[in-house]
Amino acid sequence: LRTPQTYRQTDSGRRPAPRPAPARHTPPHPLHLARTHIHANNICIFESLTQSLLAVANIDI
């Protein structure tokens, strides 16, 4: 009975260890920089769209 309990404890200990490992492997540095660059471009596009919408609203008023 003690051996399966220790085996279960090792399984419970092994499960959280691989979870942070793939999280670290998923975001490499170049892709992360590219994602932040694309995100910044999306923010610029969103700001330009909001400015255009505000300009159209001012023209309509």
Shape descriptor? rod-shaped
Radius of gyration: 25 Å
Helical content (DSSP H or I, runs of 4+)? over 70%
Give the domain tally. Answer: 1
Mean pLDDT: 61
Question: What is the number of strand segments?
Answer: 0
Number of helices: 3
Uncertain residue ranges? none
- Give the helix/strand class: mainly alpha
Largest sheet: none
> In percent, how much strand structure appears in the residues?
under 5%
Region (Disordered): 1-32
Biased composition (Polar residues): 1-10
Report on the structure:
- With 61 residues, the chain is an all-alpha fold.
- The protein has one domain (2-60).
- It contains three helices and no strands.
- It has helices spanning 2-14, 20-25, 29-60.
- The longest helix has 32 residues, at 29-60.
- It is rod-shaped and about 45 Å long.
- The relative contact order is 0.06.
- Residues 1-10 have a biased composition (Polar residues).
- Residues 1-32 are annotated as: Disordered.
For this entry, give a set of tags.
61 residues, 84% helix, rod-shaped, mainly alpha
